[in-house]
């Protein structure tokens, strides 16, 4: 019963947040800080409805000194609400083109200045990547990417795709890794307190001076560091 009530409230919240987000986007279309404000709009009420306790340690993300590429593990659709708590100032996200057809959220996502990529069209995807590289270098705006490309459903990290690392190397900006503990398999939404989630960002990894030849090693390094961090947070929660 509690689960059904929460899902009803979440549905209403999703619609209301979408309406308010679209209005914000219409008032200041494509402002790169719209994403942060809309993320908070989704995240704060959702955490109250779901009764999920989120503890964050993201100083390297919130106090970043320049534009960067932010990479995070992608577990489920709940990431919108969980990670919305830590989206930093002037940060936009890369998403698949099909998101634009989601009522309200798709229009909000576009008006917030986020980047929609047509993964089925290599030429258009490449042009979008070039645009985001220019944004990183010249517009004091960071890019948030889920390098797995799809949800891992709380299982082992999926292989990383190249896009985020190509952008970081081409722009010469650091990579900041954001790790979220495995929550999707441990949430108990039929209980009053649904669970606890840890979010941690790792020290920036510089890419200045790297070339595409260095990309495989960079990808492997990032994936291994994130895997170790996620496992450490999971052990911390189990011991609590």
TrEMBL record:
UniProt remark on domains: The HXXXXD motif is essential for acyltransferase activity and may constitute the binding site for the phosphate moiety of the glycerol-3-phosphate.
InterPro entries: AGP_acyltrans (IPR004552), Plipid/glycerol_acylTrfase (IPR002123)
Enzyme class: transferase
Top-level taxon in the UniProt lineage: Bacteria
Native source species: Pseudomonas kielensis
PANTHER family: 1-ACYL-SN-GLYCEROL-3-PHOSPHATE ACYLTRANSFERASE
The protein, known as: 1-acyl-sn-glycerol-3-phosphate acyltransferase
GO terms (BP aspect): CDP-diacylglycerol biosynthetic process; phosphatidic acid biosynthetic process
Entry keyword set: Acyltransferase, Lipid biosynthesis, Lipid metabolism, Phospholipid biosynthesis, Phospholipid metabolism, Transferase
């Amino acid at each position: 019963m509690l689960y059904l009530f929460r899902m009803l409230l979440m549905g209403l919240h999703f619609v209301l947040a979408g309406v308010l987000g679209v209005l914000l986007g219409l008032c200041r279309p494509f402002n790169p800080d719209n994403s942060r404000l809309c993320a908070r709009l989704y995240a704060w009420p959702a955490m109250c409805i779901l009764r999920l306790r989120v503890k964050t340690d993201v100083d390297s993300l919130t106090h970043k000194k320049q534009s960067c590429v932010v990479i995070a593990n992608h577990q489920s659709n709940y990431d919108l609400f969980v990670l919305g708590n830590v989206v930093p100032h002037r940060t936009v996200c890369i998403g698949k083109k099909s998101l634009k057809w989601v009522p309200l959220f798709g229009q909000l996502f576009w008006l917030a200045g986020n980047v929609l990529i047509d993964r089925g069209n290599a030429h258009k995807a490449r042009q979008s990547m070039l645009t985001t590289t220019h944004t990183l270098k010249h517009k004091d705006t960071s890019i948030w990417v889920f390098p797995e490309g799809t949800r891992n459903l709380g299982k082992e990290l999926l292989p990383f795709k190249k896009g985020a690392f190509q952008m970081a190397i081409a722009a010469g900006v650091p990579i900041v890794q954001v790790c979220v503990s495995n929550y999707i398999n441990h949430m108990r939404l039929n209980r009053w307190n649904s669970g606890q989630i840890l979010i941690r960002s790792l020290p920036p990894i510089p890419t200045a001076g790297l070339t595409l030849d260095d990309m495989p090693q960079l990808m492997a390094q990032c994936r291994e560091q994130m895997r170790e961090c996620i496992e450490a947070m999971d052990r911390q929660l189990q011991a609590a």
